[in-house]
Amino acid sequence: MRSVPSINCLVKLKRILVLFVFFVPSISFSQIPASELKKFSPLLQKEWKERSNQEKALFIVAVKDIAYFKKKIGTYTGIKIIYEYEPANVFLVKTTWREIIREILPLDEVLFIDVHRVAKEELAVSNFDISIDKVNLVHSKFPQYNGNGIVVSVKENRPDTDDIDFHGRYLSTTLSSTIFSTHATTMATIVGGGSNTYYEGKGVAWGSSISSSNFAILLPEADAAYQQYNITVQNHSYGTGIENFYGADAAAYDASVIARPSLMHVFSAGNSGTQTSTTGTYANVPGYANITGSFKMAKNIITVGHIDSLGVVLAPSSKGPAYDGRIKPELVAFAEDGSSGAAAIVSGMALVLQQAYKDIYGYIPSSALIKAILLNSADDIDSKGIDFTSGYGAANAYKAMLAVINAR
Predict the structure, then answer these.
(1) Global confidence as pTM
(2) Distance, CA of 15 to CA of 103 (rounded, Å)
(3) Do 103 and 219 share a domain, yes or no?
(4) How far apart are CA 91 and CA 61, in angstroms?
(5) Taking Cα atoms as reference points, which of 288, 363, 148, 351 lies closest to residue 374?
(6) In this structure, are residues 122 and 50 in contact, taking their beta carbons and an 8 Å threshold?
(7) How many structural domains does the chain have?
């Protein structure tokens, strides 16, 4: 005759089952078909099993048909659309890993999924010198070209809007973060500081209008926002981890430039130049392919590494190639404490060149043309010719300005 389990045994068994469910979270989706798994970013393909099925996160999702996806997702109460960038069919959604794997990943409409990362400011610059990149020569020879009438957006947290170096030139928008950042203030000063506090606070485009945009979402602003505020340069002095793939965010930034051809996105390459990537085509190649962020793999942007005052690429400056062998970074510029300041210098140069071109030819040129001018006028450094350490070379504002003025 079989014995009947005691009440205590049943209670213990129930507790064990509860622990099993909560502490072995991936058991409910331990297998994903290969056709679906490839939709995950390379990083998620390695990490998804470590996630709890009840853990909530923000996900970047690229789809074929934006209207169909919105209609489909509208039927799920556990999935919330946080942001969408329509030109690239990219969404930012908030949901659990269970919903991503069981409901979103199997959809034929879904092309790519990545988890949204938190951006990190890539150091501030404590030793600012615009003479290295010949910006001071432009100020001396062409003082009328200071970015006047051109608008830049600094995408990160909010700079000090009361800083007198921006007096009368800070453009308040609905895009700004509520979080104050000294790093953002420094970047804005490098791009367009007015030297009202001290002569070393004079930025590259000291007559430009400065705005701010929150980097809590690592996707472009809506195209209408760039148009509304007349933003033609956006500076991105932040990064995530080393990511050697072309993600939905990279596609979004490429689409952003296609939608607004005069809009230039300038990114810092990163400060991981001494690290070795463990993923991608160039995995385990010491000191190379360590650009910090898949969005920096975009094709229509500029990524910028950093050099010292002697024109030597500093070891922490992140290096290429891009995931597919393209040149990254495209340029380097002076910034001894990190690539943040280098990107800000190039953003300032782009503003000044845009103003000069508009003054001479009557309109702001495409970002492709400004990019070509900056790359073509750079000073060759490091290895002879184009390379994955310095790209096309060190940015030279004076040569770039001469190219615009002399129609070269």
Answers:
(1) 0.90
(2) 29
(3) no
(4) 5
(5) 351
(6) no
(7) 2
Tokens 């000191």, residue located: 287
* CA 88/CA 283 separation, integer angstroms: 28
Sheet with 151-155, side-by-side order of all strands? 209-213, 151-155, 231-236, 264-268, 302-307, 331-334
Query: What are φ and ψ of residue 33, in 5° steps?
Result: -55, 145
Residues 325 and 390 in one domain: yes
Query: Residue 310: what pLDDT?
Result: 93
372-373-378 Cα angle (round to 5) = 100
Helices in 111-242 by DSSP H: which ranges? 135-141, 182-192, 223-228
The predicted structure's pLDDT at residue 26? 43
Q: Return the CATH number at 133.
A: 3.40.50.200
**The total number of residues written for the chain in this structure:** 408
Q: Check if the beta carbon of residue 314 is closer than 8 Å to that of residue 308.
A: yes
Over residues 22-58, the pLDDT tens digits come to 444 443 455 889 999 999 999 899 889 889 889 999 9
- Return the structure tokens found at 172: 């308040």
Which backbone phi and psi does 294 adopt, to 5 degrees?
-65, -25
pLDDT digits (tens, 9 = 90+) for 236-250: 999 999 999 999 999
- Helical residues (DSSP H) of 77-192, grouped into ranges: 97-99, 135-141, 182-192
pLDDT (0 to 100) of residue 1 = 44
